[in-house]
Every structure is written in structure tokens, then in C-alpha cells.
Specification:
Shape: elongated
Strand content: 15-25%
Radius of gyration: 31 Å
Oligomer: single chain
Distance between the termini: 44 Å
Strand order of the largest sheet: 10-23-24-25-21-22-11
Amino acid sequence: MDFIRAMVTKDVADGLNGGRVHTRFPPEPNGYLHIGHAKAICIDFGTAEQFGGRCNLRMDDTNPSKEEVEYVDSIQEDVKWLGFNWFADVRYASDYFDACYAYAEALILAGRAFVCDLTPEQMRSHRGTLTEPGQESPFRTRSIAENLDLFRRMRAGEFPDGARVLRAKIDMTSPNIHLRDPVIYRNLRSSHHRTGDTWCLYPMYDYAHPIEDAMEGITHSLCTLEFEIHRPLYDWVLDQLPEFFVEWQRKTSGLPAGTPYARPRQTEFARLNLTYTIMSKRKLLELVKRNLVTGWNDPRMPTLSGMRRRGYTPAAIRTFCDKIGVTKYNSLTDVALLEHCLRDDLNRVALRYMAVLDPLKVVIENYPEGQVEEMDAVNNPEDAAAGSRKVPFTRELYVERADFMEDPPKKFFRLAPGREVRLRWGYLITCTGVEKDAAGQVTALRCTYDPATRGGNTPDGRKVQGTLHWVSASHGLDAEVRLYDRLFKVEQPGAVDGLDLAAELNPESLTVITAKIEPALAAVSPATPLQFERVGYFRADPATQPGRPVFNRTVTLRDSWAKAGAKKG
RNA sequence: UGCCCGGUGGUGUAAUGGUAGCACAACUGGUUUUGGUCCAGUUUGUCUUGGUUCGAAUCCAGGCCGGGCAGCCA
């Protein structure tokens, strides 16, 4: 059990908050959710779920200059896609702007906040350094009446942005810089996606967040490690005039009448880092803005929308989040674990089809011209309920170019002159000849088939080492296939300050090819996980159209043959 | 050289004073109409130095190493 579940278990056992567990997932709508958020979502919603509690989805929208409704919408879609349900309606920090403002006036009245006229530069110099204490602002001693008047005029829009701020009066000598009279309100002329131009000043995160949590009756406020040092300020806000929150929580939490007041408590865990992946929203936005990818939902992006389009399943992501655990240790998780969880789920659910990515023609000389046989093919060997389908077999077929070698090494179990292989669900064939063009490039294979081996069976019990996938030349269809590989070629992209992200991109992160697919593949929906046998897992792209199919490669199959080859080479 | 938080195989994570376990990765072998899946196995670890204790990954102290913090961002 991880330390958060241990803590909550104890809290429940101690009867804290009447045994109630209420968490929240509070993204800022300034970008799309990514796999790192999935971890937080699984912790926030998962903890509530496990203890029979609730979890709110709350947009932390206190900085309108960065936030957009497009993001608000995508966040909800992604959380739903992962399979989580939030309590009641989506919440917004902006729902509580009135309360934040009222509490600020109360703090002023209590002598615990003051309006400061220092410029940002002056404030920085007064703040001190990591090793030296700060200096008190000359405005710190303003009278309560003057502070109240000035703050109200800030709200009325009498001062330009940056002229004045409201600061908490705490301790300029604190070793924790966040306690050195932090700014809690600033003027910001920016139209808000929900409140429009009602406000020209907005609360800061450190001030607003504990209020938001208290307003919603949150018991456990779980967040990432970088907020650990902010916790004393979180506590300070809640503890100044605690009586204010009791009534507010009753009115805004949406909880049943009589629910006792809960004072939220913040606990921090380490965020997810993944090899070959960037998790910073700022850098992901940069990729989008510079057109280094096609958008937030580019299948190479670690965003949930990109992964969804690529063919990731919610189950795979949730299993992954479960396996990585929850600690305070700053770790770097191998992306191979994510891919393992993906393959594990896909192996169970993906429907098998045959598609030839790099076609090489095969002519079966003793197979009647014009004959078509409908072969039975199993849709999913891991799931009998998935049934079977028909695949047309004809005299001319395509096989994978890499499945033939003219002069193969001993352990090559595929096609070569004189060698026999099985065509999956088809027949056993033996290569009898090779056709080449003037340049010596192989253009076609001549083969013979054994009519006694229909379906790929060997009635005489003989062993065949290789089984190849294939597509009928006359029935196969062309399809665009997008072969995705990792977006970055370095294990820790973005780790070097000042280095251009573009320099770390994998130039082979996308290869577009035209493949030959079996006819049944023309009709599959983007909702269906697919396996192209012996090749990998694929997903129809949402942009796929009748007559113009497009497939995205989700992930390759494990390939111990390729691995053996790579080792020698 | 201030404050806060961390250090368990290559990676991630269990063990909360009592046999260092699991997963991924890697490597062997077996099965197989996907060189997939599955099965069996192998390799590899408690940062360090003291202390407490019958017994320490766990508790205490020092050291070393890593991360975070000086936005009117979240």
C-alpha cells in the first residue's frame, strides 16, 4: 500500500471528518491533459473510489490570460475517457471569486493583509534571497481603513495592472520564501472564459486553492511535490479566520445537509517522469505552436487525446498508473512499462487481421487461375467469443518483403528458394523460383502449394517453422498506414536548459506508407483495437473514410527475431 | 552553501523492528498455425559511517548524493 492510501486508511479509522473521503482533481485549463495527469487522476479519483468517497473535477481558472474553453472541454472528455466520474457538476475556481474576495477583505479587517505599491522589481529586491531574509515593505504598516479603501479601488479598476497588489502579512524573515508576505491578489485585465469582464483582479493560486478546497468540502487535497513548500501558506490561509469557511462549505460543497465541516489537508506525491517523453505543458504547447507535431492530439504526443488516437486503451493507462505506484521519490519510469501494459491489454482485446506493409508478389503456379477460396481465420486466439471471418485466397498474393531471403541464415524460418512455409489460415507453399528486374531487385516469387494443407494444417504431421501473413493480390486494398515511433530520440528530452527541443526529436517518429490490407479491414471503426498479425497493434484513424482507410500504428509486437538480428549487427 | 523533501537490483515499487518480495527490462530454455501470447528458469539491490537492539531497509546521529523553493504562473 502506498503512503497516501495508508494515510487515508488511518484517517478513516480515526473517524476524521466522520470517515468521509473527498478529493479533487484541479487542472488549470491551459493545455491538454497528458499521461502525467493520468497518474494524478488515478490517484485523486482512485483514492476516493477505494474509500467510498467522492472526487470533484475542478478547473483551476485563476489566470484568464492563459486559459481557454477548448482546454476545459478536452479535460472533461479525457477524464471521462479514462473511466472516472466526478461528483456533481464540474467545478471552477471562478465559482468562488466572490468568496475569495470577501475573505480578502476580512483578512484586511483583521490586519493580516495589506495593499502594497512596490513595483515588481522592488518587491523582488525586498524579498531577500534563499539565504538572506527579506525586508518589510514600506506599505506594510498602512492603516486598515486605507488598505480596505485601496483594495476596493483595485477591484473597481482604478489602478493599472501591476501598480498595486494585495499581500498577506506573514513574515519577511521566514526561511520559506513563500511566507515572505506573498501576493494574494493582483490586477489583471484579461477577459475570463467564464466570468467575462466582471473582475479586473484575480486571486493567486496559493491563496485561492485552499479556499477552493474548503468551499467544496475536500478532505484530502492531493498534489505534486513542487507544492510541498507551499503547504505552510495553504495552512495559513485556512487557519486565519477559520469560522468563515464553515458556513461557506455548507452552502457550496453540494454535500448532504448536516455534513460536518472538513478542514482540507494537503499531501504531496511525486509527478510522473517517463523516458523519451516530455511532460511539461509549456513544452508540449511549444511543439504544437511550432508545428513540430500536428496538434495536441498528434498520435506521437503523450497527451491523452494523442494516445487515444494512437490506439491506447484507458485500461492500459490505468493499469500502468497502478503499477508505477505512489511515492515522494523523484523517479524516471521506463516507457517500456507503459508499452508492456498497452500490449498486455491489446493482446486480450485486439481483433486480428492481415496486412502487408511492404508487399512482395507471390504467384502460386499450381493454383488454378481465377479460383477464390474463402478461408476461415480466427479473429482473436485469446478470445473465442470474437469469432472468425473469411479471407479470400487466390493464385496471386502479397507477402512481406522481409519474409523472403535469397540466401538466408540457418535460423531464418521464412521463405527462401526451396523452403516451405505456412500461409496463415491458407496453405503451405514452397518457393520454386525468383523473378528479378534489370537491377537485380526481387520483383516476385514463384511458389507451389500443397492442396492437402488447406487452412494451414499438415495432415501428415510435418513441422513447418514459419507462418507468414499475406493478402490476396486481387482482393487486397490499399491503405495509408502511419508508422509511429517515439517522438524523441533522447532518453530525457528537455533536460538540458536552452537546448532546442527540435534538436532532440526523432526524425523517424513518423513514416507513412501504403500497405495492402485484407478486405475485412476496410470497414473497421476507430473504436476497434486491431492487431495486424506478426506486425503490431493498429487503430483506424478518426479521419479514416470509406474507400480511403488510414491506420495508426499503436505499438509494434515484441519481436525477438529483430532483436536477435540487432544484437549481431 | 538557508529552508523543505528524498535515496531498496538497469528501471519502478513492496517489506513500517523479525526469511529483502513483486513487476518491467535483460538473458536461457519449453510450447505454439503470429519469431506474438503463454510457461519454466537465470542475472542483478537496502547511499555511507557510527549508534540503539537478541535482531535495523525500517529507529537515532553525522556524512554523501539527488530534487524543489527567490512569478503580480499554476
